[in-house]
User: Which sequence fits this backbone?
C-alpha cells in the first residue's frame, strides 16, 4: 500500500524519483531493489558513522551514491537498470571505503568523487564483459575501483592514508598467535554492518531489518551466513580482534544471500550449496588478507565476488 | 585385453567402477584417461612419500582424489566427464600440495578436504568459463584452490605452515649467486615426479612409465620437455638446488605433453611450436617464482597453465 | 603521392615490403598504420637512446621489431594484419624495455629475443580471447610478456637487473614527501616519448611529429592528454622526479589517443569521455606503481590498457 503511494509519487515528481533511484541504489548493495531497504542501510551507515565520530563516512556514502547515479544518467545507461538502483550500489561503497581508509582533504574528496563516477563506467564494462556467462557484476566494480583508489593514494602527497594497514609481509598466525577471545554476539551482528564497512552491532541490526523489509529469506540467509562464518573462523583460529569486528563475516553474509536466495530458488539442495560457498568465503577472506598484505589494501568484498562467481558458474542447474 | 576385462568388471561392480574413476582421476593429472597410468602415478607418489618419511603426502593424495570425485557425484556433474576422471586430478594435487606445505593437524585436514571438494566446483566453473574459447581448464582449478588454501593457512592459528618459503622480497640472483652445481640426471628424472610435488628420481621413472602405458608419445614428450627445460635453466642460470630438484622442469614437462601431443596432432611443426612453449615455460616459472614471493606461495603448475592457454589460443590452426 | 610510390615499391620488392611492414609495426605502437610515422618513432628512440649513451636501446627496439614480425611470418599469421604491422608493435616495446631495464649480456639478449618472439604468440592469443568483446589487444601482449621477462630476470644468475627499482614495500608519499618541483615543459614533452620508454624532450617532439604525419587528431589528442595528465598529477601530488620525466603522462597519452580518436569518432561527447578516461589513467598509473612495487616491476602501459578496455566496454554507443 505504502509502496504504491511512493511509486506513484516517484512517477510524478522528478525529485522524488531521483531520491527513489538513490535509495534503491543503497538497497542493491545487498540485492534489494527497495527504497525502504536502502533507507535502512543508509540509516545503518549513519548510526555507525556518528557513533564512531566519523561523519565523513556517511557523507562519503551519500556523495558516492549520488555521483555514481548521476554519472549513469550522463552516460545514458539503460533506464530500467538505472531505475532499479543498479548504478548506485558500487558508488555508495566506494564513498564509504574512501572516507574510511583515507583522511579527509580536498584532494581526497576529489579522488573519491572521481572514483565514484568511475565505478559506473566499471559497472557498465564489467556487466557487459560478464554477459557471455550470464554472470552478475556483483560488487566487483566497487572492489576494483576502490583498490585502484587506495593503491593510488599511497603515491599522492596530497592524500593521507588513514586507518589502513600499510604494505607488509605476512607472518604465520600459528607462529605469532594473537591474544584475546572472540566476542560472539558482536561478531555475529557486526558482520552484516561490515558489508558497509561499519563496525557497529546496532548498525548490523538495522542492516538485517533492511533485508527483512525487502525479503525475509534474505534476512534469514544473512543471519545464518554470519553464524556459519563465525563457526568456521573459530574452528580455524582467525585473528580474534578481526573476527569480533565481523571482518570474517561480511563477505560470507553476502555469499549466503546471493547463492542461497537471490540467484537460485531456495531449496534444501541450494541451501547446502550456499552453505558450502559460505564456508569457502571465510577461507578466501583469509587468503586475500594474506595475498593483498604486501600491497597494503584490504580485500573488501572480493571473497564474496570470487566465490559467488565460481558457485554460479559451477552449478549445472543454471544451464 | 586386460583393459577389456577391467572395463567389464567396472561396468558390473560399483566398487570397482568407483576405483576405476579414481584411478583415471589420478591419470588425468597428465592427461591419461587410463586406470593403469593413474595407478602408476599413485605408486610414484607413494614411493616418494614413503622414502621422504612423509606418509601424509600419499594420504593427502588419496583423500583429495576421493573427496573431489565424491563432490562431483553429489553435484551431479556430467557422467561422461566423471567417468573419465575429469573431477579427480585437481583434487589429488590439492591433497598432495596441502600435505606437503602444511603441517598435519585436525584443522589442516579440514582445510584440505574442504579444498579438495572446492576444487570440483572450481573445475566445473572454470570449464564452463573457458567453453567460449574451447580451452581446457588444465590444472588451473588445482592452482587456484591451492593458492587460496595456502594463503589462508597463514591467517589460521590452528594451521601451521610447513616447508613453504614465507613471504619475502626477492633479491636478484645475479647479485646473490647461489653456490653448487646442478645434478643433471636427478634434475631430468625428478621433473616428471615434481608434477606431483614429489622430489624423487625413482618416482620420476614411475611417472614416465605411467605415461608410456597410457601413450608412448606423451612419455617421449615428457622426457624431451624435461631435457629442454634443463638446457634453458642451465643457460640462464637458475638456482642449482631448485634445478637439481626438478623444480624448473615439471611445468615444462606438462607443457610439452599438452602442446606437443594432447591438444594437437604431432608433426614437425607442432613439435617446434611445443618446444618454443616448453622453453617459455621455464621463463614463466622463474617469473612466477619472483612474482609470488611476497605472497609466500609457490607457483605450482601455473606456468604450464598460462603458457599452454596462450599457445592453444595463439595457434591459428585451431580455428 | 609519395605514399603511392612507396606502396608500389613495397608491392614489387620483398625487401622493401619487409621494411614497410616493420615500419608500420613501429607506427602501430600509437595506432599509426603508416611507415613514415613508424620511421619517426624509431628516430625518436634513436635520438633518446644515443643522447643517453645507451645504443643498446635502439638495438633492442629493432631486434624486437624484426623478431616479432618474423615470428608472425613463421606462424602464418593473418596476412592483412601482418601487412599493417600488427605483429611488430609489441615486439619493439619488448626490445626497448628489456634493453632499458636489464644489463646487456648474451643471456639477456637470448631472453629478449625469446620474449620478442613470444610477444607474437601472446598477441595472437590475446586478440583471439578478446574477439568475443570486440576489444583490441592494445599493448597488453607487450605488458604481459615484458612483466614475465623482467620478473624472470631476477631469478637468472646470467642476467643482471639494470636501472629497475628492486622489490620493495611502498611507503605513503604523504608521510615521506619528495623534494623538488615538477619541470612543466619536460613533463609535457617527455610523456609521448615515454610511450617508448625514452626520457627525452626532443624525442617527444619526434613522436608527436610521427603522430601528426599519421593523423592530426591523434597528435592533438596526445598533446592534450599529456597536459590533462600533468594537471591531475600536480593536483594530487605525484613524485616530482617521476612526473618531470613524463612517467605519469605516457599511459594517459595513449588513452587519450585511443578513446578520443582511434576507436570512437571524435565529438564533444567522445572528447569528454576520453578526458575522463585520461584523468583516471593517472590514478591507475599511481595505483599500479604501488601494487607492483613488491614484485619489482614497472607498470609499463598497463594503466592505458586497463582504462581503455573498461571505457570501450562501458560505452553503450558501441553496441
Assistant:
Amino acid at each position: 500500500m505504502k509502496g504504491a503511494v511512493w511509486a506513484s509519487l516517484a512517477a510524478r515528481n522528478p525529485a522524488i524519483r531521483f531520491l527513489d533511484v538513490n535509495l534503491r541504489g543503497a538497497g542493491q548493495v545487498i540485492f534489494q531493489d527497495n527504497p525502504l531497504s536502502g533507507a535502512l542501510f543508509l540509516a545503518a551507515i549513519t548510526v555507525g558513522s556518528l557513533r564512531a565520530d566519523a561523519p565523513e563516512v556517511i557523507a562519503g556514502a551519500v556523495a558516492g551514491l549520488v555521483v555514481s547515479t548521476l554519472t549513469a544518467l550522463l552516460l545514458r545507461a539503460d533506464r530500467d537498470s538505472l531505475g532499479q538502483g543498479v548504478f548506485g550500489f558500487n558508488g555508495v561503497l566506494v564513498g564509504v571505503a574512501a572516507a574510511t581508509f583515507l583522511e579527509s582533504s580536498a584532494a581526497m574528496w576529489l579522488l573519491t568523487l572521481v572514483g565514484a563516477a568511475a565505478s559506473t563506467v566499471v559497472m557498465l564494462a564489467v556487466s557487459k564483459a560478464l554477459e557471455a556467462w550470464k554472470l552478475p557484476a556483483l560488487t566487483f566494480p566497487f572492489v576494483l575501483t576502490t583498490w585502484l583508489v587506495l593503491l593510488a593514494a599511497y603515491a599522492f602527497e596530497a592524500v593521507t592514508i588513514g586507518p589502513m594497514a600499510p604494505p607488509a609481509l605476512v607472518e604465520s598466525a600459528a607462529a605469532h598467535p594473537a591474544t584475546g577471545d572472540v566476542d560472539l554476539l558482536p561478531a555475529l551482528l557486526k558482520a552484516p554492518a561490515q558489508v558497509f564497512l561499519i563496525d557497529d552491532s546496532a548498525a548490523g541490526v538495522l542492516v538485517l531489518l533492511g533485508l527483512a523489509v525487502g525479503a525475509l529469506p534474505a534476512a534469514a540467509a544473512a543471519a545464518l551466513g554470519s553464524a556459519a562464518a563465525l563457526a568456521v573462523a573459530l574452528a580455524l583460529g582467525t585473528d580474534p580482534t578481526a573476527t569480533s569486528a565481523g571482518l570474517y563475516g561480511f563477505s560470507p553474509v553476502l555469499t549466503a544471500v546471493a547463492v542461497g536466495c537471490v540467484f537460485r530458488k531456495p531449496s534444501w539442495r541450494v541451501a547446502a550449496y550456499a552453505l558450502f560457498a559460505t564456508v569457502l568465503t571465510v577461507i578466501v577472506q583469509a587468503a586475500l588478507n594474506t595475498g593483498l598484505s604486501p600491497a597494503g589494501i584490504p580485500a573488501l568484498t572480493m571473497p564474496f565476488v570470487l566465490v559467488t562467481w565460481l558457485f554460479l558458474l559451477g552449478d549445472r542447474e543454471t544451464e
Observations:
- Chain C touches chain A through 36 residues (CB under 8 Å).
- Chain C has two domains: 13-164, 169-319.
- Chain C is about 70% helix and 0% strand.
- The mean pLDDT of chain C is 95.
